[in-house]
Structures are given as structure tokens and as C-alpha cells.
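U., I forgot to send this yesterday:
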Amino acid sequence: MKYSQWMDGTGPDADIVLSCRVRLARNLLATPFPHRMDDGQAQTMLARVEEAVHHLETGWHLTFSRLSNLTPITRQVLVEKHLVSPLLAQDPIRYEAVAIDDRESISIMINEEDHLRIQVVLPGLQLNECWKVANQLDDAMEQHLDYAFDPKSGYITACPTNIGTAMRASVMIHLPALVLTHQASQVFTTLAQLGMVVRGLYGEGSEALGNIFQISNQVSLGLSEEEFIHNLTVVTQQIVGRERHARQHLLQNAGTALADRVGRAWGLLTHARIMSSEEALRLLSEVKLGADLGLIEAPNAATYAQLIVATRPGFLQVEAGRELNPIERDQLRADNLRRLLGEQNRV
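Result:
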């Protein structure tokens, strides 16, 4: 199965920052929000957006798909790849759609909470690059669509907290050492005071599995897009510094215990016959920490990012070509982990 660009393990601070994202919420002028549209309005709105996307298909390499035409498993994989939100993917019945580029770094979600959610995801800490691409695509879409915009309030959105720039910038970051040294809660409290919000692996309402967190701006009003991007970049760099310091502290003060923990995680990943999704992410997090500290030679950054997705339920079922019950998924997950990690040698 194809992997998305954000999984290639490149970019600044890619050992800790798995990916970054910029998302812009947009609504069409004189058109009710998605939750207020009747079928006729929704159909008309979707047709307008589809036409706009078709104008950009060649230059932006976009493919337009109605979610109602996709299987539930395919929609689940799109969520697992962070190309659509869980909200958009669940039981589409009212003209939901998505446009995705050929590298799977760009997606336009249509008729989620807002008419459009334009997002760009890249590997490592590349928020400025995400913003540049998102801004260019936003301008291109606006050549064919009239946005709801107020000179004083900014972009009009379904949720008042998104008004203003209507931008959410976020980083997906791996913080095992801060969790192990019990510093994570203090860091997250500080982030809240700075106007940032911390969420789990799949955003709002999700768990922070495998010591992976999403950090984003909490409001989108009062600063420019560039200022929000700058602030989150600076904050992320500070968190990366604290994580690196915590890793060295663990290595120097609890090196044997840490090496034992990593070795046990490696042993389970490469020998278990049944592995749950949650356990896989936890063990992969520990092995990734060990690899970053030179305690073990597996997996590299690209393999780790890909394994996060490759061990998820939807991805496994697409690989199998059929729906799997929970025990079948756990068995296939363990088989894949043994095969993929077994190809690498321990130091």
C-alpha cells in the first residue's frame, strides 16, 4: 500500500517531530454551514467545489472522491494516514468528499464542520513550508469560489473558536523521555498557558497512543498566520530541546534499565504472535527511543512512521483484502512486525 509523504522520516528534527500540518477552514459566501444545509444546498455546494477542484487537478495533481463511494475500510485508512478527520469519515450521507494530491501531502476535506478544510502535512518541523503551500492552494481555490469573509472578524467559520485566520497549525511529536521522566504534564500545562492545546494521535477527542501528541494553536484570532506559525515553531523547538535533554538524562542515570526496557520491547515486537494496536504503538515507541539513543539498530525514522500507520486496523484490512475480526487483525499485525523488524539486525 502507498505511504504518505509525511511518513518518509525526513525534515528538521524528524527524530522527534514526526510531521507538521497547516489546516485552513473556509466557507462559501451566502451558503449555510454544512450542519444547516438541506440536500439541495449541499448538492449545489459540492458541485461548485468539485468544479473548482477540477480546475486545479493538473497543476496540483488532485484526485476528487465522494466519501460515500469509498468503503468504510478505505475511509478508515484515510483517517489513519491523517488525510481526513474521523468526523468526515464516519458514515458519510450528506455529500462529504475529499481531494488528495498524488504525494498524499495535501488534502481538501469537503463538508466536514466547514465547507472546506484545506490541509498540508509534511515530515519533520516544516511549518513554514506547510503554510506556504496551503496559502498558495487557498488562493488558487479562491479564484473559483467566493469565501465568507468579514473585514473585522476574518474568515467566517462554523465554530467561533476558528474565526479570524481560521488556521490550525500543529505538530505531531514523539515524547517518550518526557513521559518516562514525568515532565510531560508540566510541559503541557505550560503550553495551555501559551494558548496551545495538546491532543492525541488523531486530534480532538483521541488518545495519546505511543507517546505521540499533537500540539496546535488553540485560537486563530488576534495574530497573523505567520505569527501563529512562528510561535508554534519556537515552542516546538523548545519542546524538542527538553525531550533531547530528558533522553540524555535517562541514558546517563538509568541506562541499564532503559536498555533492558528497549530490549524487551524489541523481543516482543520480533517474536509475538498476537499484538494489539495499542501495545504495538507502545512497544514501537520504546524501540524508537532506543534506536535514537544508539541502544538498538531498528527501526529508522521512515520505518517507524510507516509502522505507525501499517499497524492500524484499516491498513491491515486493506492489506488482507477483506474485513478482519479483532483477533485476525492482532495476528496479522504481529506477523507484519516480525517480518518488517526481523529484516533489521540488532547491534
